[in-house]
């Protein structure tokens, strides 16, 4: 009987560990391999499975108001992990694309040296040029900030989840309207 109870406890422990590792978003950057053929497509009107699902899918920006699209969704360069123009995130978004930035040449070259070439088109990914608005990985943006290469951000389109990674004071230094 004791052996049976121990086996049940071990099984429950393994299930809990599996759930943690399967559903916890990883905090790392993404690469060009993120963009597979057909990935960069419009969302098709489907409701997104956001991290803050329990809050009614109402995302807020760093100003405390409703999150608005980072880019014009009528263009070929639709940003956001869900390709809906929004810098929102979900458990599948291992890069946590929550910073809406106006990319510049300094940032594009910086991220290319880190192994993430955002300039070169690849598959469905159109490639970026200076002036494009794009949802960036929070950790890459912080890395660029520390190197003096972070691009300006659009506060109305930058997700409030950014405050979990970087202070308000730092973000406010990069605001552009």
TrEMBL record:
InterPro entries: DUF2237
Pfam family of the protein (one): DUF2237
Protein name: DUF2237 family protein
Keyword Transmembrane listed: yes
UniProt entry keywords in alphabetical sequence: Membrane, Transmembrane, Transmembrane helix
TM segment ranges: 6-23
PANTHER family: SLR1628 PROTEIN
């Amino acid at each position: 009987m004791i052996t049976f109870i121990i086996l049940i406890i071990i099984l429950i422990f393994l299930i809990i560990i599996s759930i943690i590792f399967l559903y916890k978003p990883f905090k790392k950057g993404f690469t060009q391999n993120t963009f597979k053929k057909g990935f960069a497509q419009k969302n098709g009107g489907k409701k997104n499975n956001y991290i803050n699902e329990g809050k009614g899918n109402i995302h807020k920006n760093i100003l405390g108001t409703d999150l608005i699209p980072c880019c014009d969704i009528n263009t070929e360069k639709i940003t956001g992990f869900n390709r809906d123009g929004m810098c929102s995130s979900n458990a599948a978004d291992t890069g946590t694309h929550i910073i809406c930035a106006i990319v510049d040449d300094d940032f594009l070259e910086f991220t290319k040296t880190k192994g993430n070439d955002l300039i070169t088109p690849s598959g469905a990914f159109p490639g970026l040029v200076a002036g494009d608005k794009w949802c960036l990985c929070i950790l890459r943006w912080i890395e660029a900030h520390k190197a003096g290469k972070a691009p300006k951000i659009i506060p109305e389109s930058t997700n409030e989840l950014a405050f979990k990674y970087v202070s308000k004071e730092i973000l406010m230094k990069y605001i552009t309207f």
